[in-house]
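Protein in question quoted in full.
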Amino acid sequence: MVKVIFKRFAELSDQLSDLAKTMQVKHGEYSGRYEQVDAEQFLNWCVKARSLIGNACGRESEHYKSFVAAEEPSSFSGNYENLKSLRAVFTAAREDFEGGYLVSVRNLVQAEIADSELDQARELHKSGYISAAAVVAGVVLETTLRTLCDSHGLSHSKLDKMNADLAKTGQYNSLMQKRITALAAIRNSAAHGSTGEFTAADVSSMIADVERFAQESLP
């Protein structure tokens, strides 16, 4: 997903350059001299760029709000003035995304890492390495909790403490908190070689639950 967004920023940047080349100076009876780009091409680019910024930065971000505000047409100038303002916002969003300064970027990267590690956990489980599979899934669980703590301004600590803190903020309910505690218990048993405290089926369910939790928690 991160690579797709990188690619889309590059594509829309090229399209923006092409759009700017359509600028023409025109004269109106009441507005006088104004600069105008192709209206249909301009609308097409705006829709795609607004969607991209919403996905990359979030719809509550300053980038998205500034882009929407810059789209508002002016009665006293052509749409080229809007284009210049939109280009500034688009460039800022691209730089912040590619620089890794957005929480959404870190969440996307973390989600992709989680997918890779959970695939590894499934392969270990399939090959009969049940304890190792549980430990890897446990790492994904704890990393997801750390990422959520970052998003809510909470400090990193032991898994149980992060779990309790996140539940208090309303990130999830008490039932999910208890389930995370149970998943962490399987991880701990596996890490300490207490294989009699869980089954292969328990670990299989654990991997599925951690995957679901990571997907729902890391947009």
